[in-house]
């Protein structure tokens, strides 16, 4: 069974592109358009949580920082590694404050995306 990854980004073109690349590399991918949507999807995974989350910071409804606060409050979700993907300046300081695994800047290099997925999820099963 392939590893599951959650991609949270309000830009549907970016989200869909990232999801497609991850699928092409053997991952099962869930997508969410904002932090609230992501929390709802995490609660409805049938007990099969993702091995990691790619998270945008600037989103409507619930931004990435608020999502992370909520995630950390829920013991069953707190251990899921989060990699922020953002065009924010001074991203390193924000990442430290949010207790994140790592961050990737936008524009994103797809090799960096796959490398991050492999760091946090062992090699996926063959698709």
Task: Describe the protein's topology.
Blueprint: E1 4-8, H1 12-24, E2 28-32, H2 35-43, E3 52-55, H3 64-73, H4 75-78, E4 82-86, H5 91-97, E5 102-105, H6 110-120
Parallel strand pairs: 1-2, 1-3, 3-4, 4-5
Task: From the structure above, extract its key features.
127 residues, single chain, 6 helices, globular, alpha/beta, 5-stranded parallel beta sheet, Rossmann fold
Structure, explained:
This protein has 127 residues and is an alpha/beta fold. It has one domain: Response regulator (Rossmann fold, 3-Layer(aba) Sandwich), CATH 3.40.50.2300. 43% of the residues lie in helices and 18% in strands. It contains six helices and five strands; from the N terminus they run E-H-E-H-E-H-H-E-H-E-H. Strands 2-1-3-4-5 form a five-stranded parallel sheet, sandwiched between helices. Strand 1, helix 1 and strand 2 form a beta-alpha-beta unit. The radius of gyration is 13 Å and the shape is globular. The chain starts with a strand and ends in a 7-residue tail after the last helix. 29% of the residues are buried.
């Amino acid at each position: 069974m392939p590893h599951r990854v959650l991609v949270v980004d309000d830009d549907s073109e970016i989200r869909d592109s990232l999801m497609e690349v991850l699928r092409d590399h053997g991952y099962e991918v869930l997508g969410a358009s904002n932090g609230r949507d992501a929390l709802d999807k995490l609660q409805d995974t049938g007990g099969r949580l993702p091995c990691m989350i790619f998270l945008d910071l600037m989103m409507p409804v619930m931004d990435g920082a608020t999502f992370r606060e909520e995630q950390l409050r829920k013991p069953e979700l707190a251990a899921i590694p989060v990699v922020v993907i953002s065009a924010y300046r001074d991203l390193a300081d924000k990442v430290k404050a949010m207790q994140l695994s790592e961050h990737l800047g936008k524009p994103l290099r797809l090799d960096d995306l796959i490398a991050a997925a492999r760091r946090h999820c062992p090699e996926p099963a063959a698709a």
